[in-house]
Each structure stands twice: as structure tokens, then as C-alpha cells.
Amino acid sequence: MQLYFLGRMFRFSLIVIAILIAAGIILFPYIENIAILMAALFFVYFAFMLVLYYMIEIYIKPMTKITKTVDQLLEGNYHARTQGVIKGKVGELSDKINQLARHLSEITLQEQIQSEQLSTVIENSESGLVLIDEKGYIHLVNRKFASMFGKEVKDYIGYLYYDVIDNEQMQTTVQETFLSGQRVKDVVTMDGDGPKKYYEIIAAPIFNELNMLKGIVLVIYDITELKQVETMRKDFVANVSHELKTPVTSIRGFAETLLDGAHEDVETRNHFLEIIFKESKRIQHLIEDLLILSKMEKDEPQMVITEVHLDHLLEEMMPMFKQRAEEKHIQLEVRNDKVVFEADEDKVKQILLNLFTNAVNYTPENGKVAITLKQVDEFALIEVKDTGIGIEKEALPRIFERFYRVDKDRSRMTGGTGLGLAIVKHIVEAHQGKIEVASEVNKGSTFSVYLPLKHPSGT
Ligand SMILES: Nc1ncnc2c1ncn2[C@@H]1O[C@H](COP(=O)(O)OP(=O)(O)OP(=O)(O)O)[C@@H](O)[C@H]1O
Ligand SMILES: [Mg+2]
Known about the structure:
This protein is α+β, with helices and mostly antiparallel strands.
């Protein structure tokens, strides 16, 4: 633009000179006095120069400024503006260019914000994301994907997917999507150093306006936890069925034998009936425990929070405890402080009953069981200590799992199903308390339950 104006200026100067020469030639015969002729020519020259100066000030200088600004805008600097007051038509042009620059900078800012938002979403997504073009080159990978495979984003970008994605199953899913042009869903398992991991992959094709495949977007979710829950549920059903099968088979076997004629012998009949009675009690016990457990495992277990007098509660249960201890010649020691706290009374009874039953069941005859109820800081402490068989260190973390028994046969003999401590743990958690266990094989075990004096939900 500047050059354009300079060209025009040059032509203007040539015209001025030509006009001066022509005027000189025309006026020469009429004006004899050369001084007057020179003065007239100088006057004409001065007038032209004034016009020229005016043009430079009004058009050329502002246009130069505008040109510079436009150049800067073209280079991507959308903050560039024409400065200074410019009048007339060129001034209007300058204002319009400034307006255009403002629009451009607003649009760029919006685009920048949007692209930042998008990359924040992609980067912070809990799913792994990969974008592969139609030639198989990876264009985008988020951090989550890279971290799933212990790599970094730069290890993927710009590479062919089959060179950098090590998992064969994942490669097959991508290939299938390329071939079929359809969305493919798959579950991928990976054995790393730690426990097995499960991922769900969804590979979706991307098409352009002409319906041509332009690439693939791969989304990967870690579904290990979901799988674990599913496995736990399957295990649970299998365990329940197994636990029920044993007593049901036994009842059926003895009932059949009785029907086949064994009932005629009174002694055999009584013995068999006793077994049937014991096994049916076992089934009842299992069903009751399962019901308690399922109620406790609800997101919000139903709790009736009242003021509980721990000492009164134990006094109520003492006759039963004494009888059970005497049956096994177990010495029972009790320290029952006056402790008042907020809790669900029936559930606290359940804790006491389950811990005491375990202590008696897993303590040989002539052993000792001590129950201590006292206040420790902001907690009511229920402690049950025995001099029984104890629990191996390796088994300790597992005893609160459903159906877990250190010695299955021994526990079954006492009618145990392995649900007692799982119930205790759930009750303690529902009260936001904590349970601790210390144990030594052949020396004994101590279970300590701490329940907050004030229940978080209040009364
Ligand atoms: N005081 C204890 N001394 C030794 N082992 C114990 C004691 N308490 C629990 N255990 C071990 O922990 C396991 C789990 O206990 P839990 O009370 O959950 O089940 P259980 O007693 O076998 O059956 P139940 O459902 O009838 O209580 C027991 O099978 C036993 O091996
Ligand atoms: Mg038990």
C-alpha cells in the first residue's frame, strides 16, 4: 500500500515538473522579463508543493500507519491498533480496521478459552483417550492413557499405533474398527506387576463430510473395581450355596435313612433327629446372619440411635454368657464400668454376642475369657479377651471378610459360617467406630471395639 502511494507521489512530481516546463515554454514569448517568469513559475511550483504536503499529511502518513497495523494483524498480532486521531475518510477506514482488530482479538480469545477448556477436560478425564488418524498415526493421547501403561504422552504422539500400543487385544480392536468402520467395544485384561487390571475399550470411527474414514477415537475405562465387585458377588452366591448345601445334604441323608427304617431303633432315631435339629439350626443361623448382613450393607443401614447404658446391657446378657462359659468350664471375668453413649442398642448387643461367642468357641476348656466395658477418651470401649487358640498373623487381615474362617472344619464344628466378624465390622463402621485385634497363636486374642460416645447423626 505504501509503495502504491510512493509510486503515485513520483508520478505527481513528474507531472508537476512537466507542467512547470510547459508553463515556462508557453509564457516565455509573452513575458520578456525573465525574473517575472521565474517568479510566476516558482509561485506555481510552491502551490503544487503545498498540495503535495497536504496530500502527504492527510493521506500518505495515516495510510502508512494503517498499512503497518494491517501487516501486524496479518502476522497474528490482534492487539495491534492504529494510533492517533485521523480525520476524514481515512479516519473512518482506520476506525473500521480498529473495530475489525477488536473482533479478531475477541474471537481468538474465545477460541483460546474453548481449546483450553477442551484440553483440560481431555487431560483430567478419568478415561484414557487416543486419537488415531486414517494412516494409523497417533495424534492425541491424554495423560490418563499414558499412565495406564506406565508411559508418557510423548512416547505415543506421532507414532504408528501398532508400534507403541503394546497390548495385542487393544491393537486388534483398533484394526477391527478400521476394517469395519463400526464402533467396537471390548474388555482388555492386563497382568502387570500388581494385581490383574481390567479395561473396557470403545473404539469409534470418525468420518468426514464425504463419509470417508478419517481416523479412530479410542476411549479406555479402568473397570477393575467393577470386576472385583462382580467377582465378590459371584463368590458370595457360591459361598452361600456351598454353606447351605452341607446341612441340607446332611438333613436329607438322615431323613432318608430314618424313612428307610432306621426310625424303628429308638436310639438311632434320636441320634439322627438330633443331627437334623442341629443342622436345621445351622441353616437358620446362616439365614439370620445373611439377613443382618444384607441390612447392614445397605448404603444407609437402618439404625435406631438411643442412649445406651453399656453396663445395663451387659448385665442383661450375663446370665446367657455365664451359662455358655460354664458349659465349657471357661472362667469368665468382667469389668463393667458405667458407660453411657449414643448407639443402636440391638446392634451393640450383636457385637458383644458375636465377640463373646467367638471367644468361647475358639478357647479350649478351662480357658479364660475377659469382657471389659469402659470409657476411653471420646469412645466407649468393648474389649473381649480370651486365652484361646489365637489367629495366625497372615490370617488376621482376612477374618473380617464374609465366610472367611481360619480353620474351616473347626469353625463348622462350632456351627460357624464365617459371617460373625463381617457383621461386627459393618456395625462398627455404621457407628463410625473402629475395631482392633491383637492375637498370638496358642496364647489368645483380644478384640477391641471403639464406638464414639456421640453418634455423628445425633439422637
Ligand atoms: N477369638 C478368636 N480366636 C481365634 N480365632 C478367631 C476368634 N474370633 C474369630 N476367629 C477366627 O476368625 C474366623 C471368622 O470369625 P467369624 O466370627 O466371622 O466366623 P465364625 O465364628 O467362623 O462363624 P459365625 O458366623 O458363626 O460367627 C473364625 O472362623 C476363626 O477362624
Ligand atoms: Mg463367630
